[in-house]
Amino acid sequence: MKNYLYNVINYLVKLESKIAFYPTLMSLGGLFFAFIMYYLESLGISSYLIEHAPLLVVNDTETARSLLTTFVAGLISIMVFSFSLVMILLNQASSNFSPRVLPGLISNRRHQVILGIYISSILYSIFTLVAIEPNGNEYQLPGFSVLLAIVFMTVCLGAFIYFIHSISQAIQVNNILDKIFSTAITRLETLIDAEKESKTDFPDTSNWQVLKSHKSGYFQDLSSNNLINIAKENQCKIEVIPVKGTYVLKGAPIVKYSIDLDEDFVKQIAASFLYSKSELIEDNYVLAFKQITEIALKAMSPGINDPGTAINAIDYLTDLFLLRMHKNDRSCYFYENMPIVKIGTVTFSELLYSVMAALRTYCKHDFVIVTKLFGMLKHLLENQTKYSEQYKKPILQEVENLYQDTIKTHSNSTDLKRIEFLYNELI
């Protein structure tokens, strides 16, 4: 039951990243508010305000109809234009940067709220228009509701102006990079703070029982509390094999456990895995490295040729790698200072190689970018953490790989001397 609730909560959390989530909630709110005002009008709120505060009431039926009709038509036009801008933004981001950045742009809460303001105001205006009696007089006309419609229309105009400003900022590559970077930093800091030191190594799992996946999809998240409770209850240890963000095929091994477990517990373990067809940085910081790397590669493509963006991307990657060096390659959940659940993770060596392999392949012809990559590796070597010695070897290997690729690509003697100098400075 707990695991079922966890999956339901997780599903609702993932819904927040959908572009229609907040607009749907706010449109329901606008509809509900329209019925509240209809009820208040039936109690005579407009007639009361006509006597005590006539300025707060629109007391002319034709004026009210004209205003509300104009509001509905105008708001629909504004909403269509705003949705068109969002689609253009997504298309341009996919073409110029990377398709992977789309989920982050779609989940922009400010844009969702603005679209929600439009839809809720439209629904409110429509139902208020319907509430006007054909032969309206000062007691039948919902004059105060019409005044509120004017207020909502003013809010929508302000929201539209802000939307134009926000959409123009959201499409800028620096802002996209900064958002990806900030989200990844938050996720990494959370993981680092949650790490516990333990001198007890996790036992060999080669002979343990294996649980295979019952479906395919991206392994997005895990009910860690459920696995910990199962491990404590059965006094066993569990290893999660796939890494978050990887695509798990049906029938692939996903879990190893040290003792035979009842079928109910095995089903609970399988239900602890949350699959999805998309990825979010909030769940997997490695995706940030992929996105920033892809933006750098796209910037260096012949069609775009923007080395400045690639340099900015490398700066962000450097900062992320420096923080990643504070995290251990092994991720475990502990109980009484003993590791009972081991989580599959992307090691620092694999992460660095995947990023550098792509950058070396597509950017080695640009001497400025090569110099920047040598500078990144230099910063990583000089960074002092408790895992520095552990990560020193893969960094030096990438220095060697970068050197070998660049000396074969460049022919200018001055460039080659500079590359030789940078290489000798690091080894």
Automatic annotation (TrEMBL):
Coiled coil start-end: none
Keywords, alphabetical: Membrane, Transmembrane, Transmembrane helix
Leader sequence segment: none
Spans traversing the lipid bilayer: 20-40, 67-90, 111-132, 144-164
Protein name: DUF2254 domain-containing protein
The keyword Membrane is annotated on this UniProt entry: yes
Organism the protein comes from: Hwangdonia lutea
Entries under InterPro entries matching the protein: DUF2254_membrane
Family matches, as Pfam families: DUF2254
Lineage per the UniProt record: Bacteria, Pseudomonadati, Bacteroidota, Flavobacteriia, Flavobacteriales
Top-level taxon: Bacteria
